[in-house]
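How it folds:
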Amino acid sequence: MSGSISAPPTSNAAACSYEPSTLTYRQAREILRDHDVHGPQCRQWLAAAAYLSAGLDDE
């Protein structure tokens, strides 16, 4: 992940290019649900999948 902090995009077209810098377990699960049809070409989906795969959740 890039580590840069920026505001989430406001349009659906830009949403998949936005990479969240911090996630919680619930946010990651929601992103996977919302972007499930996009798969690994979607940066949000990829970040959420990586977060959950790495076991970084504290919940």
Remarks:
- The helical segments are 12-15, 25-34, 43-54.
- The radius of gyration is 11 Å.
